[in-house]
Design a protein that fits this description.
Blueprint lengths: L27 E2 L22 E8 L7 E6 L5 E5 L10 E6 L2 E5 L6 E7 L5 E6 L5 E7 L2 E5 L6 E7 L5 E6 L5 E7 L2 E5 L7 E6 L5 E6 L5 E7 L2 E5 L6 E7 L5 E6 L9 E6 L2 E5 L6 E9 L4 E8 L4 E9 L1
Antiparallel strand pairs: 1-2, 2-25, 3-4, 4-5, 5-6, 7-8, 8-9, 9-10, 11-12, 12-13, 13-14, 15-16, 16-17, 17-18, 19-20, 20-21, 21-22, 23-24, 24-25
Length: 321
């Protein structure tokens, strides 16, 4: 089974049109460009001819050896995690980056915290790890932390929150099976992709459409959306595995896919709408894998990339038309 435990994001070539030079903004640094490499490295479906990805920048938490960007709201506030023990599941501490200033986020009394999403009201959701190693979701609103735990289970992760406060996430049973859930008010509702015992819900838009990924009976990952009770599989064409991390109000989904040529489950980011796909790879020297984790209504994207030394970095960019 190809599980890589990318449960919180979770969780190389340039086929982009009109790629610009890297941008430097507060909290973000630019990077050198790579030349295009052979399209033989991964599948090359027809790209969206009207879209390109520009303004790439690396986002580093000050003095931290590793950073990851997981969410960006419509005001441009970014959330993520950092720390020497940052991995695809959780970080040492979370952060909010607003107007060039970083704010550290730590769930009170807990050893590890990650911020995953932020809505337009500044409400943050994420996950924290307790002293026993169990994972819990949380919400941070107006300085007040509250835990999110699917009733009866020890491991819960909060994946997304929309502007009305609806939350999605995932929880795990003792056998390693994963299930999606929604939380509206105080009401939890569980769901799973039919035929799958591994469903991760990672994002949702203001219409309530949910994005995530699941494992089929063979353990292969596929992206999905869930709208009005209907599941739709979204896979990057010809890729051996795919996953979705988010969907914005325009119906653009973002995520990552694998080409099978590197040890990482997911090696390339992408965006898609109405059957058109845009490959997204961070164009800096030494990048091994790119994951696109969130997109706002303006087409600003964030994510993380991994270098050949297996270090994590956050990045920002923008989809332009």
């Amino acid at each position: 089974m190809k599980h890589n435990h990318l449960s919180a994001i979770m969780p190389l070539c340039i086929l982009l049109l009109g790629l610009s030079s890297a941008q430097t903004v507060p909290g973000v640094r630019g990077g050198g460009l790579l030349p295009p490499v052979s399209s033989a490295l991964h599948p090359a479906p027809a790209q969206d001819p009207a879209a390109s990805v520009i303004d790439f920048g690396t986002m580093d938490f000050p003095a931290s050896p590793a950073s990851g960007a997981y969410g960006i709201n419509d005001q441009g506030q970014i959330v993520g995690a950092y720390g020497p023990d940052l991995g695809p599941d959780i970080g040492d501490a979370g952060f909010i980056l607003s107007k060039g200033s970083f704010q550290t986020v730590r769930f009170p009394g807990m050893p590890r915290t990650q911020c995953f999403r932020i809505n337009k009201l500044g409400v943050v959701v994420g996950s924290y790890e307790d002293s026993a190693g169990n994972i819990h979701g949380y919400k941070l609103e107006k300085g007040i932390y509250s835990s999110i735990d699917f009733p009866g289970f020890n491991n819960t992760q909060s994946g997304g929150i929309n502007d009305s406060g609806e939350i999605v996430g995932s929880y795990y049973d003792g056998q390693g099976n994963a299930y999606g859930f929604t939380l509206i008010g105080n009401t939890y509702t569980s769901f799973s992709v039919p035929g799958s015992n591994y469903t991760l819900a990672l994002g949702l838009n203001n219409s309530g459409t949910i994005a995530g990924f699941y494992a089929d009976a063979s353990g292969i990952y596929h992206g999905f959306t869930l709208a009005n009770g209907t599941f739709t599989t979204v896979d990057y064409p010809s890729a051996p595995w795919s996953g979705l991390w988010d969907i914005n109000d325009a119906g653009v989904v973002v995520g990552a896919y694998g080409d099978g040529n590197l040890p990482d489950t997911f090696e390339h980011g992408f965006a898609s709408k109405n059957g058109e796909y845009l490959n997204i790879d961070v164009p800096f020297v030494g990048v091994e894998a790119t994951w696109v984790t969130h997109i706002n209504k303006s087409g600003q994207i964030v994510g993380l990339y991994i270098d050949t030394a297996q270090r994590f970095y956050g990045f920002t960019a923008r989809i332009a038309r």
